[in-house]
Amino acid sequence: MINTTSMNITSKTNMALAAALCLTLFSYGQRKSKSQTKTIDFPMTETHWAKLTDNTEFVSYKGTQAVRSTDDRPFTIWLQDFEFSDGTIEYDMELKGQGFPSIYYRISPDTLNFETFYVRYFGTPDPKLRFATQYTAVVDKVNLWDMTDDYQAAVNLNETGWNHIKMVIHGKQMRVYVNDMKKPALWVPAMEGITENGAIGLEGDVIYANVKITPNATEDLPAIAGYDPTYNDPRYLREWQVTEPVDYPFGKDLLEGIPVNPGVQIDSIYLDENATWKTVWAGRRAMVNLTQVFGGPKNGNRRLVWLKTAIKAEKDIEKLLRLGFSDEVWVFINGKPLYQDRNFYGSPGMKFPKGRTSIENSAFTLPLQEGDNELLIGLSNYFYGWGIIARMEDTDGVWFK
């Protein structure tokens, strides 16, 4: 079961990683040649690893050098003097306290961007639980876990004793093996971070040991991004126009009353006729990922953008539209309000699956008039990543990009 402590992943991580800048713990001069595939051992000692939290303890454990927490709270360590790009990372992890034991890799020098793989452990492991593991990216210090529902998987975890984890990373792709070294537990066809190399860190209330890295050992994993299952599907709306974000404080209403039907219109404070629009395209998984365009919340403020696209219909017709979104949406068709909804993680009304952005979030009927139609969507963000996915149930009698 997902615990709301996931909200702390990014803040704790960035505080710890930022401390590394002051400590100058690593040197980017230690670059490895592309031909090197020699396995390098990194024992859990202060010779190789820097403590980023005071509750870190290096110990001898079960015949090997290990690291653990001294107070049953997550600790963070940083691999010194090593830059990772492609290759194989292996390590052992023994579950200890509940949480999100994580490995961070390709960490940028400013610690604002990196990739991460983590395990969710909140009680007896369930081998059928799809949310047991997850890959996600951190972009501009925003953890995109709520935007990467596709990159989660069930896994057989040992509640006692070691769990052996092997990560094969090459360019945009990654395979992760957990205990079973013959079958990947998680396969990520296109990592969505923006870094190509960088430092490595570990975090969690677990016991780590036996870290081995083999640079450039990528097995048969291609470097280019793999197949996108939405690529051949013409039902997704991919070309949009978007405004620049504006602050949208809680307690405000987008709509104002007018004395004619439909009785409301968009308050010009939040969208006026002089708004500047630019083109944005849906990327992989047919998602318009606005975190990659605008970053996340700024100074703790909720933000709002508008997206619009054109749909042409050969006659008056109704079409079912499926919409994935985070966090709130206001949908208008030809200037008239049509649909409003929220997808706040951790709230009783969060959308399936678990408040993450997915084409399964919502569906409603889109009334189209003969000729040109404008679909307008207001989207607000306060919590982690934001974006939309939109798909028509079918394309009979309609045209769009």
Can you put this structure into words, describing what you see?
There is one protein chain. The N terminus is likely disordered. A hairpin with a 2-residue loop joins strand 25 and strand 26. By secondary structure, the protein is mainly β. The chain has two helices and 30 strands.
Instruction: Report on the biggest sheet.
Output: 8 strands, antiparallel
Question: Please, what is the oligomeric state?
Answer: single chain
| Main structural class | mainly beta
Strand content: 35-45%
Approximate helicity band: under 10%
Output the radius of gyration: 23 Å
What's the shape? elongated
Model regions low in confidence, pLDDT < 50 over at least 5 residues: 1-34
How are the secondary structure elements laid out?
Elements: H1 9-23, E1 40-42, E2 49-51, E3 56-61, E4 64-69, E5 75-79, E6 87-95, E7 102-107, E8 114-119, E9 133-139, E10 142-143, E11 152-153, E12 162-170, E13 173-178, E14 186-188, E15 199-204, E16 206-215, E17 239-242, E18 246-247, E19 255-257, E20 264-266, E21 278-281, E22 288-289, H2 291-294, E23 303-313, E24 317-326, E25 328-333, E26 336-342, E27 362-368, E28 371-381, E29 387-392, E30 398-399
Antiparallel strand pairs: 1-16, 2-5, 3-4, 4-16, 5-15, 6-12, 6-16, 7-8, 7-15, 8-9, 9-10, 9-11, 12-13, 13-14, 17-21, 17-23, 18-23, 19-20, 22-29, 23-28, 23-30, 24-27, 24-29, 25-26, 25-28
Compact overview of the structure:
This is 3-keto-disaccharide hydrolase domain-containing protein. With 401 residues, the protein is mostly beta strands.
